């Protein structure tokens, strides 16, 4: 007697996409990265519909040019990305807002609705130099939380966009404790989370638990997995994030953790439309490496119902 194969649940609230990061792109311009036209060609070939802008300046910043390039490939933009160090207090606001305005202008012109906010690193991802203490003071937590609320309010008022803050390795919003402290200290009407499944697992967090506990704060997803063996070595040696990526700590699904089907199903159960953007940190990488991985990843996500 044959046993029927389980039919994957249809995850129709998730909008699947990819990003320049999955092509090894971390910088606006770098000789080790694929040219932007090749990225667009290949992300479309891998059958993704949505992309992020990536580092500002990698893709064309002229909206008319970018619209035309995306239109030729049937691609749409889900979000732009900004970098902040708001825990330093009001003195950094003007510099932060200049950067945010630039990215938000292009993001809005592409009809996207989100800005992914990445906090600044506490140590250099190349040299491992500690740039500042790993733990924030009480005053710095206040600056971070109030600064993010101010950012969320002003971005919405001036650009009609929502910010989603990205917990990230080697930043002050990384571990379960720090993520929960940040969420508990900020206004849900102004600030929500971009949950990166790989970064949260890298820092010891339980993705499904976070989604089930703070579901109303999950505004966006990055789909990523971590190689547990390499991660154990990274943790044991205190390796900074950049060198860890070069070791291959972020791997293609379904080879790592967290298992993505339970994460995707928990996100579906929130019953809201969510972007779920694939990111596999692998800077730098051979130019021919990303496309086959992207194809396999897209097939895997379809097998999960997404």
Automatic annotation (TrEMBL):
E.C. designation(s): 4.2.1.44
Highest taxon in the source lineage: Bacteria
SUPFAM superfamilies (UniProt xref): Xylose isomerase-like
Gene3D superfamilies: Divalent-metal-dependent TIM barrel enzymes
Pfam families: AP_endonuc_2
Gene Ontology terms, MF aspect: myo-inosose-2 dehydratase activity
Start and end residues of each Xylose isomerase-like TIM barrel domain: 40-304
Keywords: Lyase
Name listed for the protein in its UniProt record: Inosose dehydratase
Species of origin: Streptomyces rimosus subsp. rimosus
Biological classification of the source: Bacteria, Bacillati, Actinomycetota, Actinomycetes, Kitasatosporales
Protein encoded by which gene: iolE
């Amino acid at each position: 007697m044959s046993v029927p194969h389980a039919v994957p649940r249809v995850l129709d609230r998730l909008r699947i996409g990819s990003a320049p990061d999955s092509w090894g792109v971390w910088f606006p311009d770098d000789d080790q990265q694929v040219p932007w036209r090749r990225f667009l060609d290949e992300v479309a070939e891998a059958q993704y519909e949505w992309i992020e802008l990536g580092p500002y300046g990698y893709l064309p910043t002229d909206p008319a040019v970018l619209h035309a390039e995306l239109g030729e490939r049937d691609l749409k933009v889900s979000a732009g990305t900004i970098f902040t160090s708001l825990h330093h207090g009001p003195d950094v606001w003007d510099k932060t807002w200049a950067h945010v305005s630039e990215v938000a202008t292009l993001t809005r012109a592409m009809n996207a609705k989100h800005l992914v906010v990445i906090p600044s690193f506490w140590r250099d991802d190349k040299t491992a130099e500690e740039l500042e203490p790993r733990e924030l003071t009480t005053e710095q937590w206040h600056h971070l939380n109030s600064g993010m609320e101010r950012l969320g309010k002003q971005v919405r008022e001036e650009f009609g966009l929502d910010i989603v803050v990205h917990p990230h390795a080697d930043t002050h919003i990384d571990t379960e404790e720090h993520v929960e402290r940040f969420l508990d200290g900020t206004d849900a009407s102004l600030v929500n989370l971009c949950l990166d499944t790989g970064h949260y697992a890298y820092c010891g967090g339980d993705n499904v638990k976070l989604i089930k506990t703070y579901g109303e704060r999950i505004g966006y997803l990055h789909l990523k997995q971590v190689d547990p063996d390499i991660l154990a070595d990274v943790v044991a040696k205190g390796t900074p994030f950049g060198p860890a990526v070069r070791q291959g700590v972020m791997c293609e699904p379904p080879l790592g953790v967290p298992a993505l089907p339970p994460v995707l199903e928990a996100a579906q159960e929130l019953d809201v439309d969510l972007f779920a953007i694939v990111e596999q940190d692998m800077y730098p990488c051979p130019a021919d490496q990303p496309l086959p991985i992207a194809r396999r990843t897209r097939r895997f996500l379809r097998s999960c119902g997404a």
